[in-house]
């Protein structure tokens, strides 16, 4: 399939999650405008506000390397269900997405995932275009 490598990288990233408090490990992989892929995992902290989600970890890694446009993102949390990104991650995705219809791949396992668009999981999003009005 078109996103097999992205799915594999997200699954691998989940293994590096640091989740001693919630025990909820999450992995993500983001495909950027030049087809480079960056992975991320959730990193918890005793001061919960200092925790960072897997999706933002992957996106921020890509941004710190000079990339600015997301083409697709894959996420895995609980392998028994399709884990959706939190609201903050959805907003960050919106900020750097090529368009509102980028694929968001929600993974249970290598063979079982669904694909939604960013607009489907965050309809009516607030964007930088809203600030220009």
Automatic annotation (TrEMBL):
Xref: InterPro entries: APOBEC/CMP_deaminase_Zn-bd (IPR016192), CMP_dCMP_dom (IPR002125), Cyt/Deoxycyt_deaminase (IPR050202), Cyt_deam_tetra (IPR006262)
Keyword vocabulary terms for this entry: Hydrolase, Metal-binding, Zinc
Enzyme superclass (EC): hydrolase
Catalytically driven reaction(s): 2'-deoxycytidine + H2O + H(+) = 2'-deoxyuridine + NH4(+); cytidine + H2O + H(+) = uridine + NH4(+)
PANTHER family per the UniProt record, alphabetical: CYTIDINE DEAMINASE
Domain CMP/dCMP-type deaminase: 1-129
Keyword Hydrolase included in the entry's annotation: yes
Cofactors, names only: Zn(2+)
Job of this protein: This enzyme scavenges exogenous and endogenous cytidine and 2'-deoxycytidine for UMP synthesis.
Family: Belongs to the cytidine and deoxycytidylate deaminase family.
Species assigned in the record: Clostridium simiarum
Protein name: Cytidine deaminase
GO MF, any single term: cytidine deaminase activity
A Pfam family per the record: dCMP_cyt_deam_1
Taxon lineage: Bacteria, Bacillati, Bacillota, Clostridia, Eubacteriales
EC number: 3.5.4.5
């Amino acid at each position: 399939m078109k996103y097999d490598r992205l799915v594999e990288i997200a699954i691998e990233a989940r293994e590096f999650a640091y989740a001693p408090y919630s025990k909820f490990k999450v992995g993500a992989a983001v495909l950027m405008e030049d087809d480079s892929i960056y992975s991320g995992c959730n990193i918890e902290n005793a001061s919960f506000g200092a925790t960072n989600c897997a999706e933002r970890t992957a996106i921020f890694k890509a941004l710190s390397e000079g990339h600015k446009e997301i083409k697709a993102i894959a996420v895995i949390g609980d392998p028994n269900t399709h884990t959706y990104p939190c609201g903050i991650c959805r907003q960050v995705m919106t900020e750097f997405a090529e368009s509102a219809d980028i694929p968001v791949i929600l993974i249970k396992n290598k063979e079982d995932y669904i694909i939604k668009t960013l607009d489907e999981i965050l309809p009516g999003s607030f964007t930088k275009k809203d600030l220009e009005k």
